[in-house]
Amino acid sequence: MHKFKSCILSMCSKISSQSGRIKHIIYGIFVFIDDLNRVKNMKLEQILKDNKAEGNEKHLPVIEIGKDHGKNEIDVVRVFVGKEVPHPNTIEHHIAWIELYGVKQDEQVIDLGRVEFAPAFTNPNVRFQVPVTEFKAFCALSYCNVHGLWQNCMEL
Ligand SMILES: [Fe+2]
What we know:
By secondary structure, the protein is an alpha+beta fold. It is 23% helix and 35% strand. The chain folds into two domains: 2-42; 47-155, Sandwich (Immunoglobulin-like). The mean pLDDT is 84.
């Protein structure tokens, strides 16, 4: 691709003596193709944000293991956003959903559930009834419709 691009740009410089406009258009096409390649090679971890990206508004999905862990055979994993500072909850700006994943001892990842919230009515605070001892870690995702995708994990 690079050789092809150089060759075309070299041809363009010859053409440019006749028409600078053609060179400008072809150069614009290459910039567009480069942008497409950048998006095509993007990885999920490039869009996931963690505690290093937190500002005044809090987005990290906080994970807490329920008090019943090990008792009454009811284990609860609570996931919520905005422990100290509540996140805005309006139609224009809200946490749209939370997902919880469990990592088993053999590294298998289990999708434990997803909850979607009604903006302005439902706070991003959810409990999953999960057999906690079967997992070595939990990871949660939260999605803010303005500030994107946030991740947090907790090892047991
Ligand atoms: Fe936000």
